[in-house]
Amino acid sequence: MMSPGNAKPGRNAATILLCLMGIAIAAGASGGSQRGMEDATAGTAVASSHSSSSDVPVPLDAPVPSVDPAPPAPSAPPAIGGLLVAPTRLVFEGRQRTAQLTLINTGAEAATYRISFTRLRMTETGTFREVQTPDSTERFADSLVRFSPRRVELPPGVPQTVRLQLRLPADLPVGEYRSHLLFRAVPVNPPADTVRAAPAADLQLTLRAVYGVSVPIIVRHGALVAGVSLSELRVERTSGAEPSAQLLMTLNRSGDRSVYGDLTAVLVRDGQPDLVVGVAKGLAVYLPNTRRTCVLPLRLPPSLDARARLRVRFDSVPRVAENPLAEASVTLP
Length: 333
Hints:
mainly beta
């Protein structure tokens, strides 16, 4: 557990990152391009042995555009394994060719991270798995985007910028391309005086948790469209548990690009104001998937009128219109 004295770098780091996010958001407002995030695959703990690689930085000095997502009131992303990354997704579209990510070490000691691209496939439940064998429906962005540096050493509370640059081949087919930029902690070797020689006949295996954060990098080339619908909605009571109910539903995607947004459940009652009883932020359905199953916890009042119902809406992030991308209603059990 972190002591009060060690907690200060994390708080300072969060404050610095919020300021940087505000700057990026202001740039996004002036850039005028639309975007959205996906669920970042954050917090992957892997049992791994210590390894090294050759890191060759790619010099990138182009100006940095707006980045995604751009909420009106930013909050610091969660720190996974002591690392803050903002924003939690990047989308290249239109004339945009450069972008940046900001990293901050929220721990009390310096840490080293290796940066590389990885290819991940989203499951129907919204989790991610590494792609071992790509199929013909998947398009990846790692061959289109360069980044620098490829390895960073982060003192506590000091921001570090990772710059990205898009290079589109002239004959690139129209479509959406996605890869994930992975920030993986480099394990620290134990001090020499703590290593003890074991008898030759003994076999020792040491496992270390290596934490990683991955950020989706999306390239949209050409005129792409997407549609969204909500289906298979039902509410289940959770007896003796909190929250007291949950909404089960399917988020459906159509078209040739991914969708991303916030899901909101509103309790509608006769003669009473509407009440928000459930929110899920940053839900995505990535190509080639056409559906995603969702479970949304609901905090319902203890007593409800028999005619009360839920109105569920899915809004784009950032919201570009008053009307949601999709909306549906469901009765309560």
